[in-house]
Amino acid sequence: MKKIVSGVFIFSFLVILSCKKIVTEIKQVPITHSWLSDSSLFDYNKIILSSVQVDDTTLAVFNKVIMTSINSKHLNGSIYNGAILGCNYGSLLPLSLSKRIGVFPTDSNHLRVFATTNPNWNYGGFIFSPTYSNSALSIKGFPLATEGGGYSIVNDKYILAPSEIDFTKEIAKCNLIRVDSSNGIAGSVQFGSSKDIYLTPASSTMRFSTGNYYSFSFFNKFFLTLSDQFYRIDTLGNIKAFGYGALPIPNSRVTQMFSIGNYLFAITFSDILISTDFGETWSVFKSSPGYQFIILTYQNVGNDLYAYYLSQIWKVTLSGNTLNYTELDNDGLQSNQITGVNKVGSYAFVSTLSGLYYRDTTSFNTPKK
């Protein structure tokens, strides 16, 4: 009897062992994306509206309140280096930045001009206020920059800012501001001078009409769309009026500009235009290119041209009479809205409304699979 019981016990024990689950520990490997997030920025600072390469190692990013200097050799650090500038005028629209200065309206009657150099100072700039006419009919105040526009900067020194328009007398006034280096705090800037520029509609064209404001700078010149009129203005104040866009054709309001080599391109509501003489004359490069090409934001980065929309990036090249678009790998950028593209040192940077992302420049132009 004892032998039978012990045999049953041994059999039951072996059955239990055979039914026991074998647990294998699986180590989780973190997913590495092509684009990595820089942890130097956090909370509200991650809402980046504008960004610019300041020098070979520094990227300046601006979130409407604070400008932060990012050192490309020390990413993911916790050291804060920037300035509290404050911009509560309008919605989340980009401001204008160059390697030396930045500018944005603090309200409809004041422009703040500041230095983008590193280190940055809260008061290393100045506030500019225009002088208005006595006309009771004119609209006074700095217009809000339309997305893709702003208060353009030429040669890190000159700013063009519309400040008054009279639809009855058909005349608009702009301030051509010169910015000088400060004799006080190193790296800061000071007011140099201001020159009044008066714009009138081109002859044999429509009058000023209600429309958005766009401003660009290429080849040491300003290009301005103001109340449906398009202008070229140089730093001496010389003006060329084109009329309703660069060409007198329907829907020719210029909303974007970019360059490839010595060719200057303009995006309108209906066409892509080209200038082979640095913006003095224009012709149609591509008629009705398609809405998908018009809504892209184009940005020159050194000698390269990129375009972006939401979280997608394209490298744009010119081949004969064709613009070629190569979509680039955006792994890690999905669900982000891009606001700028830069190259600083050995890294390419993409600023978004939810953070700053980077990758090695050698892999930046990797096509999307």
Briefly summarize what is shown:
The chain is mainly β. The chain is built from 2 helices and 29 strands.
Structural overview:
Strands 10, 11, 12, 13 and 14 form a 5-stranded antiparallel sheet that branches. A 4-stranded antiparallel sheet has the order 1-29-28-27, with no helix packed on it. The protein has a 4-stranded antiparallel sheet with strand order 2-3-4-5, with no helix packed on it. With 369 residues, the chain is mostly beta strands. The model is unreliable at 1-17 (pLDDT under 50). The relative contact order is 0.12. It has 2 domains: 31-75 and 296-369, no CATH class; 85-244, no CATH class. It contains 2 helices and 29 strands.
Number of helices: 2
Which structural class do you get from the secondary structure elements? Answer: mainly beta
Overall pLDDT level: 84
Specify the overall morphology. Answer: globular
The number of distinct β-strands equals: 29
Secondary structure elements and pairings:
Layout: H1 2-19, E1 36-37, E2 50-53, E3 58-62, E4 66-71, E5 82-84, E6 96-97, E7 101-107, E8 110-115, E9 126-128, E10 139-140, E11 153-154, E12 158-166, E13 171-181, E14 189-199, E15 214-218, E16 221-226, E17 229-234, E18 239-243, E19 256-260, E20 263-267, E21 271-275, E22 283-287, H2 291-294, E23 297-301, E24 304-309, E25 312-319, E26 322-327, E27 338-344, E28 347-352, E29 355-360
Antiparallel strand pairs: 1-29, 2-3, 3-4, 4-5, 6-7, 7-8, 8-9, 10-12, 11-12, 12-13, 13-14, 15-16, 16-17, 17-18, 19-20, 20-21, 21-22, 23-24, 24-25, 25-26, 27-28, 28-29
